[in-house]
Amino acid sequence: MATVMPEGENIRNAIKWISAQQEENKGEPLMKLIEKAALQFDLSPLDTEFLMNFFRKKE
Questions:
Q1: 22 vs 3: CA distance, rounded Å
Q2: How far apart are CA 58 and CA 56, in angstroms?
Q3: 6-12: which pairs have CB atoms within 8 A and are 24 or more residues apart?
Q4: Higher pLDDT, 6 or 24
Q5: Ramachandran quadrant class, 15 (left: phi over 0; alpha: psi -120 to 50; beta: rest)
Q6: What is the CA radius of gyration of the chain?
Q7: In the chain, domain spans
């Protein structure tokens, strides 16, 4: 099942960044990575919620 990607370059960059960080830092908690991405990419609370749901579905 395909996941619908939201519009917006920042959210797409955040997904790529989190995925890369998960590969590099296997011990880093997902929520901590999402929090860092939200700050780094200036994401809205709705975008942050999307990230949480997106990565939970992948686990």
A1: 19
A2: 5
A3: 6/47, 6/50, 8/47, 10/41, 10/42, 10/43, 10/47, 11/41, 11/43, 11/47, 11/50, 11/51
A4: 24
A5: alpha
A6: 11
A7: 31-59
Tell me how far apart the terminal alpha carbons of the chain are, to the nearest angstrom: 14
Alpha carbon of 47 to those of 20, 24, 27: distances in Å? 19, 23, 24
Judge contact between 15 and 54, C-beta under 8 A: yes
27-54 tens-digit pLDDT: 889 999 999 999 999 999 999 999 999 9
pTM for this entry:
0.82
Cα separation, 43 vs 59, whole angstroms:
22
The pLDDT of residue 8 is: 85
